Amino acid sequence: GSNPSKSASALRAENANLAAQQRSAVLSIYSLDSRLAAADTRLSTLQAEAAQLRIRRANLAQVLQVDRLGERISEHQLASQLRHLYEQGEISPIEVVLGAKSLDDAVTDLDNIKRVASLNDQVLSELHSARAKLTATSAALTAETTRLTMALQAATATEASLVSTRAARSA
């Protein structure tokens, strides 16, 4: 026969080895659970960012729609003013002064002509500035959408991988 004390010490060693493996497996699962919780939090954060981004894109679309409407109205007003000036013929400051009934009328008419020309320039300048700003904002949102889409894909893949690994180790 075999030595009973050797057999008992071999069993004790095997039990200690199994206990160590079990502790290692439990720690590994705890570690995976912790990483899974972090991945889940990251995914939730990215999903919230994506929702905010959708809201910002919808707001930008509304602003663009209002801007286009304002632009059409401004262009219509400018065209109307130009048509009016054209119908009157080219008016020189001297003609305004000579055609005026009084000095006050002449000054008022000259001021009106200047004001209309100045407003036209101002409206066009504001429209160009607003269009440039909206274009830049739209490009920034597109870039942010791309970055967020990639981050969401990576976070989803990480979470799926961790879930799969945890299930395999738990088994």
Radius of gyration: 38 Å
Largest sheet: none
Flag low-confidence runs: none
The tally of strands reads 0
**Class computed from helices, strands and strand pairing:** mainly alpha
Helix content: over 70%
The number of distinct helices, counting runs of at least 4 residues, comes to 3
Distance between the termini: 38 Å
What average pLDDT do the residues reach? 80
Order of helices and strands: HHH
Beta-strand fraction estimate? under 5%
The coarse overall form would be rod-shaped
Descriptive report:
The chain has 171 residues and is an all-alpha fold. The protein is 94% helix and 0% strand. It has helices spanning 4-88, 93-99, 103-170. The protein is rod-shaped, with a radius of gyration of 38 Å. The two termini are 38 Å apart.
Give the arrangement of secondary structure elements.
Layout: H1 4-88, H2 93-99, H3 103-170
Short descriptors:
single chain; 3 helices; mainly alpha
How would you sum up this structure in a few lines?
By secondary structure, the chain is an all-alpha fold.
